[in-house]
Specification:
Elements lengths: L5 H22 L23 E6 L4 E2 L2 E4 L4 E6 L8 E2 L15 E5 L5 E6 L7 E6 L1
Length: 133
């Protein structure tokens, strides 16, 4: 003979498990720069002399992989409550300097085609790539 109320406890346990699984699945989307496959595909190239945009939000570059034409202007918008940079990791291809919270900066993409990884010098776990072609 089952315990009184056992059916309700089982239903409650199943419902609670479903809520926990849903919550954990929502938290596993990444976004902190800890490896994994980027969810954004490379953007189409900006036209020569055109412009492109990178938004910083929740310590993440969006898009994290951007393709532009040589010499394109890239605008960076910082929507976080802390300062960030967009700094090429090799050479001195580009560097926005410190972009304060709620501020915008621009830089000119290199003239030479290639992939240019970049990072935030304040938060090195933030990473992205600018492709020039």
């Amino acid at each position: 003979m089952p315990f009184p109320g056992a059916g309700r406890r089982s239903s409650l346990a199943v419902a609670l498990a479903a809520v926990l699984v849903t919550t954990l699945a929502g938290c596993s989307g990444g976004g902190g720069g800890g490896g994994g496959t980027p969810s954004a595909s490379p953007s189409p190239p900006a036209s020569a002399g055109g412009s492109a945009r990178v938004t910083i939000d929740n310590f993440t570059y969006a898009p994290s992989h951007l393709t532009v034409a040589p010499g394109a202007e890239v605008t960076v918008v910082n929507k976080d409550s802390v300062a960030h940079t967009v700094t090429a990791t090799t050479g001195k291809a580009f560097d926005t300097g410190t972009i304060g919270p709620g501020k915008t900066a621009t830089f000119t993409a290199p003239a030479k085609a290639g992939a240019y990884p970049y990072t935030c010098t304040i938060h090195p776990f933030m990473k992205g790539t600018l492709t020039v072609r």
